Structures
1.
Amino acid sequence: MKTDELIAMLAGDAGAVAPRVWQQRYALALVAGLFGAMLLMILLLGVRPDIADAVRLPMFWVKLAFPAALAAGALLAAVRLSRPGVAIGRAGAMLAAPVLAIWVLAVLALLGAPEDRAMLIWGETWAACLVNIPMLSVPAFVAVFWVMKSLAPVRPAVAGAAAGLLAGAVSAVAYALHCPELAAPFIGLWYLLGMLIPAALGALIGQRLLRW
Amino acid sequence: MSANEERLRELLVRGLAGDEAAYHECLKLLSAHLRGFLRVRLARLPDDVEDLVQETLLAVHNQRHTYDPGQPLTAWIHAIARYKLVDLLRRRAGREVLNDPLDEELEVFAVSDNDAADARRDLGKLLEQLPDRQRLPIVHMKLEGLSVTEAARATGMSEAAVKVGVHRGLKALAALIRNKCEE
């Protein structure tokens, strides 16, 4: 087939294309992923029984805000990495800021209570955190990968990592409603690691699955 | 491309809105631009240029929904072309070690960018490997120029199935090219 024939073939009846389809697709994936994570959390783990008291504690909101902020940064990164010729831009800074913020809080907490340091870091549920955040991230992981696969990431591994991190962060928001821990060092370490597991998995899978 | 970029962008935007003639013109201008862009970067593999031009055009078409009219067209096009170029070189790096028929007679004479050399890989042959539900809609609509309704009648498929068949078929064609080269 000559190139001119190919062009005629591609141009023939190509039809109109909706502008900025990725916005709607990502919005849908996010809603589906959050809904899935919440559902799994309620069915398999349960909302913490003392949630009515917990909402009065500032650290409860910090624990929600940290993954929510990371989700926003990861979403921006994923959207930008999904399309050719778009630089990642501020997304890197948006990802670094919440991590730095929680680490500052963690250091302050550790300095403020030297005798409780082991408890502040390890808590009582660190292992559950590492299992449950990746587990609750599965619906969002599938949904975000689905969207990304329909777009055109030119750096499949990096894009896959952003997709995985987004899924992990959405999952951590849901998990925060179950998890009894409230210490900043715990959140800055185990929540972050829990979210990085799907991110690493995303990089591995993305390398193969996201090629086009 | 700067001089042509605005014209090319305008044609693409009109094409994305459904203007078939503008889209056709856009792809034609684009193929000449891509040929120049890739020829410089594939100086050592001149026989592969036309294949890569075709592969990139197919990618541009398949991914045209990822273009944002507010984005510089050059950045978008070159990112796609570079992605396909790197993909080709990576595939080659694995194979070239075994048998490298590196051209004895390097074609040095200057060729204008509009002269398409023959592609070595025949997309028409690859097309034949697609399943009927994708191949037939492409053949009827894209090669014979039938409308969706006519193609649906000719194949006995629904109009929705015809459209899906074309869309998936062209993506499958891009995947075939990738996998074929990996063998």
2.
Amino acid sequence: MKVGILSFQGSFLDHSKSIHELGYESLLIKQSKDLTSVDALILPGGESTAMKKINQFSNILTDVDQLIKDGIPTLTTCAGTILLAKEVIDGEVTIPNIDIEVTRNAYGRQTESFEGSVKFFENEDIYCFIRAPKISKILSDTVNVIAQHNDEIVGVAQKNVVSLTFHPELNNDEYYLNWLNDFIKEGQNVRSF
Amino acid sequence: MKIESTNKVKKGLAEMLKGGVIMDVVNAEQAKIAEKAGAVAVMALERIPADIRADGGVARMSSVGVIQEVMDSVSIPVMAKARIGHFVEAQILDSLGIDFIDESEVLTPADEVNHINKQNFKAPFVCGATGLGEATRRIAEGASMIRTKGEAGTGNVVEAVRHMRTITNELNEVIACDENELVALSKKFRAPLNVLEEIKEQNKLPVVNFAAGGIATPADAALMMQLGCDGVFVGSGIFKSGDPAERAEAIVIATTNYNDPKVLSEVSKDLGEPMVGINIDTLSEEEKLAKRGW
């Protein structure tokens, strides 16, 4: 199994570590030529404005978009979630693949970043939210809520895409890694909230 | 449950900046150019290091007006510098809600013995280092990110290279050592033992390490990335050059594609005049900013 991780900038090496812990190969994707034969995709956290700019040079998000539409299992965290959202408040829509509206920097600046309890499927743990976006609206009945922080929706799934606003890759806890393993192998979500 | 400003959250922001370029800006207009060019963060300053160097005198924290103007103009994180040991400047920056504080040797030091106790602040700190001892002392004081000092405002990358190589070599010595040698290495590098233990456990520096001080071209940025740093700061190199927007963008692309000479040659074409550099040999010892910090 090969997992492609969009590696323009951001926490791509942390995701790569998660993939290695599962015993899979990770490919750091920077240009289209890196995209051959991946079985799953991860779009990491970072700065979405920088990622969009870097993409103007390599233009690989067009190919990433196609792979997602072809049904490849895709996980996004934080900035990666902004790239895939259908609507973006205080930012631009990039490759809409999940029917949600996100609001950038919705909690405020870094001083408002926090560690908070998250119910991720049936498990509860503490995860980092770093200048995180909020999933401010769900725009389709086919979007399932899979993670909540208090009453806030912080993770959703739709078809082959799972989008989170927090950073499980900074924890790499057993529950997350087990879920990730199933997600990559099965090509879809196998748990219920 | 919700806790703000934990060490993990502070280090986490630095993780998100990895592979990116942080640019010095002096006003909203430059900040917008930097954001548009793909900067992952900007450093809000009243004067860029090349001008601080030229003007002489005491260099202090930038005016609150300049910092707020920059904070209001962009959606990416904004950093600002406090003088070494000047914890009140840091308190002011913290109260403004700044995203990162740089306790910087580019400004005139305010304390010749102590650095700021960085644990006391909501904002994370980045600090300069010339070797592993300095880096680990700053980490023990609570720094969430390290950068090489290089020699700011010179457009000369030689010192950043020296500092990066020194940190890497010393780091490798710690990683390769027998655990019984850690106490001796702690003395040798003047490095806090607990941080060395952390390095030994993780086989790497426990925080992100960027390159800074003298980076002026896409090739300089890629050089520092190939030497193993996690990202780059570009200070005077952008807004002292002929075409700042284009150069900023080229350095961003070069930092991502640092291992691809084809991309590097493509973005290095038609860039206009780089900033005029300074030979380090022509600087007197007092003029070297990297000597500041203890």
